Amino acid sequence: MTKRYLIVMEGTSTGCSAYSPDLPGCVATGATEPEVEQRMREAIELHVAGLKQQGEPVPEPHSSSSYVEVSA
To answer: Is residue 63 part of a domain?
Structure first.
């Protein structure tokens, strides 16, 4: 079964970091956005595998995102 989790990427002074709001504690870092996206994919796969191995429930994806425009 395939699930689609939201990841949030943020720039840092040394590259990028990312996390998934649906999977607390699941984070990754990288030098570029593509790198951190790939690392997050791997981190989520490991996180989910660990939850299953421990008999814990795997959270359903429920987060979403959107942009709003404002005058600034």
So the answer is: no
**Containing domain of residue 25, as a range?**
8-53
Give tens-digit pLDDT for 10-22.
999 999 999 999 9
Q: What is the 3-state secondary structure (H, E, C) of 31-61?
A: CCHHHHHHHHHHHHHHHHHHHHHCCCCCCCC
pLDDT digit string, tens, across residues 43-55: 999 999 999 999 9
Total domains in the chain come to 1
Domain for residue 71, yes or no? no
> Considering the entire predicted model, what is its pTM?
0.89
